[in-house]
Amino acid sequence: MSFKGAVNRATDSRTVEWIARAGYPVSGLLHVLIAYIILQIAFGSTGDADQTGALATLAAQPGGEASLWVVAFGLVALALWRLAETVLGLHPGEHSFAHMRESPLINRLKAFGLALLYLGLAFAAVQFALGVGRQGSERAEGLSARLMQSDGGQAVLVAVGLAIAGFGGYFVYKGASKKFLEDLTVPGGPLITVLGMCGHVAEGLVLFAAGTSVIGATFLHDPTRATGLDAAVEAIGDAQFGQTMLVAAAAGFAAYGLYSFALTRFSRM
Questions:
Q1: For the chain, what percent of residues have pLDDT higher than 90?
Q2: With a threshold of 0.85, does the pTM exceed it?
Q3: What is the pLDDT of residues 172-204, one digit of tens each?
Q4: What domain count does the chain have?
Q5: Which end of the chain is more exposed for a tag (fewer CB within 10 A), N or C?
Q6: Domain encompassing residue 77
Q7: For residues 56 and 52, what is the distance between their CA atoms, to the nearest angstrom?
Q8: How many Å apart are CA 238 and CA 246, to the nearest integer?
Q9: Measured between alpha carbons, how far is 231 from 164 in angstroms, rounded to an integer?
């Protein structure tokens, strides 16, 4: 059997599909925790408003170590499904002969990018579970400082910033156009539609701000502003009506988290 055929056979299993679906509530939990951190920042507290900040918050709770292993498992499962989509195209579980169909390259690239993201988060979760995790802004700032020391490194940072901003722009479009409803196995009811719209648009705007922040920090040679999502949240908080915008961002991230919980049952696979 060919490699694509083997991947197709694996994704045809309902058990494998439901294991992969376990990643969606994990994603939902992380988004709700990020929303909580953003809300705290809005009212004067400090914290890293990104995925590793959420992992650090989870690690500090009773039973945090066990929870982090569960998070890592869910993220790895979802990453492996995205890798299967990279090989077979979107929604392989819906096609018995997915390995024989053609799928647009852009869909495969998006799936591969998400797989890398989930694997990176899973690795961070394992680090926190083992007690060796660091806050995301610390790592990002150190890496950015090293990359800014060379023209090639600066080019990499600009490319990363453009990718993040582009992804954010796509999220805004996906939410505003209700294109996310195509990801569901059922017609979107009023609640799921509102959660999906608010969640995609809010997260997209913050991601777009994060991408532009990375690009701006690269040209200013300021690694403290190249920490992605956390730097974007800080910039939003410093702006006029910053507190109001942070509360709105927190509500949006919470909405996307709840939408992710709905994906556990209704996502097309």
A1: 52
A2: yes
A3: 999 999 999 999 999 888 999 999 999 999 999
A4: 1
A5: N
A6: 3-266
A7: 6
A8: 10
A9: 13
